[in-house]
Design a protein that fits this description.
This protein has about 220 residues and is of the alpha+beta class. The chain has one domain. Helix content is about 25%, strand content about 15%.
Length: about 220
């Protein structure tokens, strides 16, 4: 008489992770975390550059309205200056500022260029443009005006460098301008590392330029 036997399967012991495998997983997680932080930073910076673009457009629109009412553009910011203390709001790198048209810096009574001489344009206050900003700002702003029949290179507009190249306003404008013109700039050093994100618009070129957008 034969007796049937039943084989009982033997469960293999589960193998743990080796040190090399754990280090590989940790490295992958670290890379994903870095990419995530970088992506979030780019998203935050893109939202801030949107603020700058919108404000530059608003100031440009206010300049056009000012000219429609008065026949010329408003020359407000100190001639030839991009100093943080001369922009509105007066800027502290890495910090937000509050727009205050009544107390924002303005230039002297008349302005001449830091790179040449032009017909002086009287400075006015930011209140003349009726700009309203209901939130804290990451950028500071400046706007300058040039008189008719002048070369923009010899105007109160400061020299601005974009993408490593100093802008040649005369070349951009095609020489002496028969009509008044203006420029607007937004500058922000969001992480206080000395590198400024910039948005620049000049009416004689009808184009908006940006630099260091991801700053």
């Amino acid at each position: 008489m034969s007796v049937a036997t039943r084989r009982v399967p033997v469960r293999a012991h589960a193998r743990g992770f080796t040190l090399v495998e754990m280090m590989a997983v940790a490295a992958i997680i670290a890379i994903i975390a870095v990419l995530a932080v970088y992506g979030v930073r780019r998203w935050i910076n893109s939202s801030h550059i949107a603020e700058a673009t919108e404000m530059v457009q608003a100031i440009g629109g206010a300049q056009e309205q000012y000219r429609a009412d008065r026949g010329t553009f408003a020359n407000i910011t100190a001639a030839g200056s991009l100093a943080n203390s001369d922009l509105c709001p007066a800027y502290v790198p890495g910090a937000q500022g509050t727009w205050d048209s009544f107390n924002c810096p303005r230039g002297s009574t008349t302005s001449t260029s830091g790179t040449g001489t032009s017909t002086p344009v009287a400075n006015t206050s930011w209140t003349a443009l009726n700009i309203v900003a209901s939130k804290q700002l990451w950028y500071s702003y400046g706007t300058w005006a040039g008189a008719a029949n002048t070369d923009p290179n010899a105007s109160p507009i400061p020299q601005v460098t974009m993408k490593g190249v100093t802008l040649n306003y005369s070349a951009m404008a095609g020489g002496v301008q028969p009509n008044p013109y203006y420029a607007v700039i937004a500058r922000g050093d969001l992480d206080a590392d000395g590198v400024y994100a910039t948005v620049f618009y000049a009416s004689f070129a009808r184009t908006t330029l940006t630099d260091n957008e991801s700053e």
